[in-house]
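RETRY 2/3 - previous attempt timed out on the joint model. Re-submitting the same 558-residue input unchanged.
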Amino acid sequence: MSSDLHFCTITDLSAQLAAKELSATDLMSAVIARTRAVEPRVHAFNSCDEANALTQAAASDARRDDGQSLGPLDGIPIALKDVIAVTGQPLTASSKMLEDFVSPYDATVTTKLKNAGAVLWGRANCDEFAMGSSTENSAFGPTGNPWDVTRVPGGSSGGSAAALAAGEAIAALGSDTGGSIRQPAALCGVVGLKPTYGLVSRYGLIAYASSLDQIGPFARTVEDAAIVLGAIAGHDERDSTSFKTDIPNYRAELATRRGPWKLGIPKEYFAEGLDPEIGAAVEKAIAFYKSQGCEIREVSLPHTQYCLDTYYIIATAEASSNLARYDGIRYGHRSKNAKDVVDLYFQSRAEGFGAEVKRRLILGTYVLSSGYYDAYYLRAQKVRTLIRRDFLNAYREVDALITPTSPIPAFKIGEKSDPLAMYLCDIYTIGVNLAGLPAISVPCGFTKSNLPIGVQLIGQPFQEANLLAIAHAYERAHEWSAKTPNL
Amino acid sequence: MEYAKQLVQVLGHFERLKAVDVSGIEPSSHAFDVTNVWADDVVRPGLTVADALRNALSQRDHMVVVPKVVE
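RETRY 2/3 succeeded.
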């Protein structure tokens, strides 16, 4: 690991903090200094409140001096995607619609991180309302990939991934509706975990597609991701889709679960459109598991080719319903040009939303409209049943699946102007959301142009402990996570 | 017109789902079968009026002000 504080892991830093070799205030100061140095080029954050973060860090130091430390996250700076509510802080969803919105309450994950002593730092840039795969759809400008700032960091949680990769945070939270944690993690060379649907409360997360959205961690290592997941997972009565299940000590479980595992390779995920360098890197990861005694089997997910259409029907339908609340009345952007109250709705939404959000709202409204509901929305929900069934059938034979995370490495900002071409970035990640499964992207190499590559491991529902252990086995034997970008 | 062209292209892509045999298949609205989650019907502390109205652009006497609806 790097000797720079801002590139250290939670594991290293928490040990230094516990041994009083380092104070939370010094750590936060180092992260602020790093942020000031690189943020003009990266633009990972929509806002950051230095004074507030230093106050939180001082409180952490006071707790530790009193012998009241709250655990491994106490004093660790964690960035939050700008769709997760923090009381008294801006919450914009990277939209003009919420440009001046200040959150009146905490999301459940925010409360849990506060209870674990984490220093909440920075509202990370993202695609507007989490709709996109490049963070270019932000109303406040794109984020640069720390490995090459002329390229995208992926999306929609691109700011979270870039902040971590650039050393502007020690960990981060994002949300993943169709790949929005895993794909940017792959493109920025960090670990990104999308938990099982229902494991982490969505209370206080700005809704995009409620049956698919899930909050999860970005971290430098699998162990760090396990620590953050342990802090944010668990049933919450304020989210009615939150699942009642025992939360194991994910970090401790890493040491006890050692395989060998049976891993499935879905043949449909290695088809045309996959960048050859990514394909080769993932093949090497598969060969590693084989060398460790894991049984590798080819499996079939026959409905894979329908995932993209199913996802874009269901997600846009849910979005059109969720985003109906932004009407310019109670909060959010209100047009100054409206003639009457109906015109106020129209003008406020026309001025407040960006192009991709409008496209998805129009599509979603269309697929739900009478006359088209059965042909699009209902049919997509049935295909979703088949997609989920494919995964569950595969899990009769294997413990987890191994695939590329993204078909392509980070592309140039502005390179993809066609919406459909952009949607194809999610081709390996959306099936997981439709089936509600947990999945993790772990760094597995670099292209010849020094752009990070990620391998995706897809686990069984609520088996995050197993999934993390499988990922950890690979990571431990490789050095990818220790590499940092030259910014 | 740019939107129309793009949306027609995406809707054209959606047509592919017509090739799937969905006869006898139940629709899934969620990945897991969690239904009818009830909360106890008890009053709990919530946002204060000031907090709830904090982001309203126009307000008066604890109410949000909107343009006149009825002439």
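The longest strand of chain A covers residues 439-446. Closing ticket.
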